[in-house]
């Protein structure tokens, strides 16, 4: 079930984008909520868990995760946190964007099989991102086949990360360090979402309310 949920989240996002998506306030509110909830679960649960591991240098890996995410965003143009800068005339497969998104999605799958709240946070984070990526791709001149391949492979990367962590010994020795790196990724992505959700720093009562709601939900879970 934990492997299926991220796929379902991505499919819901694709479905929304294909059938009903209009660039609207709703997607921005969903994005703000997802960022706030992801940040809250990371700070309240994921971060303390990692620091309780007793490994002194663990904070270095958190910082490494932040740097890794910054580099991934150079490649993706910020698709992980909800915007894309790709020429609409593009007809060749966007490999750089694709690989950057897949690395991000694979890594965020690693910690979610042992923490249900984190699983929910990643799922909620994925829906608006999937909507934005899919609606963007459907608006380019890319062939339907290329788009479907892109979305399918992207969709299975997070469950694949969970699966490799849960069912193989490949990541056993480095699991803790990978989790610390993922914390850095989540900190950067979620704070960037919150930062970019307040356009021109104009106070928006709906956005502020939904951000508070994300924090409250993480607190009562
Ligand atoms: Zn951005
Ligand atoms: Zn993500």
UniProtKB/TrEMBL annotation:
Pfam families noted in UniProt: Zip (PF02535)
InterPro entries reported in the protein's UniProt record: ZIP
Transmembrane segments: 6-21, 28-46, 58-75, 95-112, 118-138, 145-164, 176-196, 203-220
UniProt membrane topology term: Multi-pass membrane protein
Subcellular location: Membrane
UniProt keywords, alphabetically: Membrane, Transmembrane, Transmembrane helix
Protein name: ZIP family metal transporter
Species of origin: Psychroflexus lacisalsi
Source organism phylogeny: Bacteria, Pseudomonadati, Bacteroidota, Flavobacteriia, Flavobacteriales
